[in-house]
Design a protein that fits this description.
Blueprint lengths: L2 E4 L2 H13 L11 H8 L5 E6 L4 E8 L7 E7 L8 H14 L4 E7 L3 H9 L3 E7 L7 E8 L11
Parallel strand pairs: 4-5
Antiparallel strand pairs: 1-2, 2-3, 3-4, 5-7, 6-7
Helix pairs in contact: 1-2
């Protein structure tokens, strides 16, 4: 059984950075282990892992402040667990977390990552912008949004 909880300690941080650095989209984006680890250790973000009794199987990084509060910065699933619904489980969990506080969920998906984009579109995300050559030359980052309403009048849940 998979549970989602806050990341716990340097060993889990290292495991997650290795998981990210070894797979796309981070490989194509030239994000190595050190950059992935730095992203995980950013104290301005909330970092959660999806784990079973044996190991960490995935992670999600959220930004809950700033202009795009409710931004999913990273979803990463261990290569051996892809296609098993863990990405969807992480996305569901993040949406629940974000929609308690904000009426919008934002994320970016790389233009070459068609599988992830298809998941987001099936889940109700809409393309709201394209950032051409934003991270690497030749690819775009596609800004997507899922909403339950405008900021005006939204009341956060306790």
């Amino acid at each position: 059984m998979i549970s989602i909880r806050p990341i716990a300690g340097a060993d889990e941080e290292s495991r997650c950075a290795g998981m990210m650095a070894a797979t796309d989209p981070w490989v194509t984006l030239s994000r190595g282990y050190d950059q992935c680890l730095s992203s995980i250790r950013n104290r301005e973000r909330e970092v959660y892992v999806a784990a079973d009794a044996a190991a960490v199987r995935g992670l999600i990084i959220l930004s809950m402040t700033g202009a795009f509060a409710g931004y999913i910065q990273t979803i990463c699933v261990d290569a051996e667990w892809r296609g098993a619904g863990l990405g969807t489980q992480l996305l569901d969990w993040a949406e629940e977390r974000i929609f308690r506080r904000w009426p919008n969920v934002f994320l970016c998906v790389s233009s070459f990552n068609g599988r992830a984009r298809a998941l987001y579109e099936r889940r109700g995300y809409e393309l709201v912008g394209e950032l051409r050559d934003y991270l690497v030359d030749g690819y775009s980052e596609l800004l997507m949004r899922k909403t339950i309403g405008p900021l005006q009048g939204f009341v956060p849940k306790q």
